[in-house]
Amino acid sequence: MRHKHVIVIDKILHILEIIIAILTLIVLIGMLGWEVYKMITVPEYITTIDQFLHTILTLVVGLEFVRMLIDLTPANTLEVLIVAISRQVILNHNDPLGNIACVLCIAGLFATRRFLIPKKEMKVEMSEVE
Q1: What pTM was computed for the model?
Q2: How far apart are alpha carbons 110 and 40 in whole angstroms?
């Protein structure tokens, strides 16, 4: 049986996580809107595919992070890490050893998901697992 004050603190922290997730989502939507606005209104605003990919993939990682903040499960946490590392491989493709390390990290995350975390705990909130 958990003490009453621990339950209250846990609920307050969960509410703060949701507030941070909402603020992050608002900033991400603003970033996307600003990029689209610049592309439409500024004639000399020419973006390269690398800059565009950087912006879009940053937004994707940010959205995955928001989802993780709202629902903190092992599955969501591993997905955020996989997306973030994949973004690193796609955008920084100038170092072969770094790419190999990133691919090995992704393989390790998939192996962790497959072999180390029981299926029944994958969708359970991390704070609920004891």
Answers
A1: 0.66
A2: 40
